[in-house]
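Collaborator request, handled under Task 6.
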Amino acid sequence: MILLKKFFRDEDGFFLPMMMTICLVFLLTAMTFILGIEFGVMKQAQAKYDWFGNAMTFASSAAGQMNPEDTIDGEMAEQFFEAAMERMNAGDYTLKSFTEVEPGDYISKVEGTAKLPGYYAVIEMPIAVVNVPLVGRQYVNVPMGYYALGYSPELQ
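Structure tokens returned to the collaborator:
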């Protein structure tokens, strides 16, 4: 603050206030641009997480209806999950794990224990951040985890 007072006292012309105004406008413009990129990335990530959750719920429900004598069937649910993600055109993703969850099992991304049987999947999905000229699209790989309750007529 003392440095600014010295500049204002020693400045004979209008140069310093003009430069401060230009810098302030540049700073606000840059912050608005970065905030816009952040909201765009959040929107994409939320949409892709919703697709992931819907595919997990569908896989859990479909596997339970196709195999009512077994409460959970991980292989069948994984096949339904892959088909749902392909059908929804959710984009590229890497399935890291798809596991059956029994009551009492610890779920890392949820940071808790399962109360009912179900399925837990972890995927890694690229989210487009910005399109850089002469370089191309830049992506951030976001890991996502989802726990879906096992659906079965026996569980109702």
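The cover message to the collaborator said: "The first helix runs from residue 2 to 10. The radius of gyration is 26 Å. Please let us know whether this matches your experimental observations."
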